[in-house]
Amino acid sequence: MNIKELNPDSSPQAAFGARLRSSRKEQGWTQDELGSQMGYSSTHISSVETGRKLPTLRFARSADTALGSGDAFEREWREIRHGALLEGFPEYVVQEGRAAEIRLYEVGVIPGLLQTPEYAAVLAESAVKRGAITSDQARERVSLVAERQAALVRTPPPLLLAVLDESCIRRPIGGPSVMQAQLTRLLEFAELPTTVLHVADFAMGARRPFDLPITVLTLPDRSLMAYAESSQRGHLERESTSVLPMLTAYHQLQAEALSQAASVAMINEVRKGTP
């Protein structure tokens, strides 16, 4: 039988397949026997082992149960799933889903938690055209935006405070219909009882305390975390000595930004000016 050799270092998907094959052989099982334990056909097992088929979360968890590997396969599945995301971001998303309060500041684009599906799709498709990610990874990015937003609809919901640089609402993404819907979404967001929306207008100039996007999370136990990104990676900061100055700067940003009423008026003006 011609067994396809995989280089486990070539991709997270290949590493998953190689680990699955190695773990199966350590048990002395055939693909049929492992498939029987997991509830999958031997063909499906073979396709995952050789990297022809992407594993699902259900598959990864079934493999962990059958092979007694703790959560090793689930963790590898998450590496595959988040392969196109910045290092540190998947961990941040977990904490975001637990947070009691979320304070975010964004520059240039509408933040994911406020994006419409169409707006998110345009950003993902643009990344595909640049060769930065694959089409599958683009679909995963759009799906993750929806999952993050759904995680906010819980009881009780988190308090979400957003400050958007004026460039976020003036930079055209997609066609006029995409921007119209996105700006309408912002106006709807501002009306919710657990949200606050500000626009940091260009007139703020040097009074703007942040040059890059930043998010500060308050967890249910009132501990703080901050997340920031460079072009290469994301960083989740847990040390209060580092996070507290960011929280102070965020309060200063809110004080300098337009009021919510003035922000809504600006967004409405831009929306009406969209052809």
Sum up the structure in keywords.
275 residues; 434 Repressor (Amino-terminal Domain); Endonuclease, Chain A; 2 domains; six-stranded mixed β-sheet; 12 helices; elongated
How many structural units, i.e. domains? 2
Separate helix tally:
12
Q: List segments where confidence is low: pLDDT < 50 over at least 5 consecutive residues.
A: none
Q: What is the percentage of strand-forming residues?
A: 5-15%
Largest sheet: 6 strands, mixed
- As a percent range, the share of helical residues equals 40-55%
* Amino-to-carboxy terminus distance: 63 Å
What integer is the average pLDDT? 89
CATH architecture of the largest domain: 2-Layer Sandwich
- The CATH homologous superfamily of the largest domain is termed Endonuclease Chain A
Give the helix/strand class.
alpha/beta
Give, in spatial order, the strands making up the sheet with the most strands: 3-2-1-4-5-6
CATH class assignment of the largest domain: Alpha Beta
Give helix and strand order, one letter per element, not per position. Answer: HHHHHHEHHEHHEEEEHH
CATH topology label of the largest domain: Endonuclease, Chain A
Compute the number of strand runs: 6
Rg calculated over all Cα atoms: 22 Å
Based on Cα principal axes, name the global outline: elongated
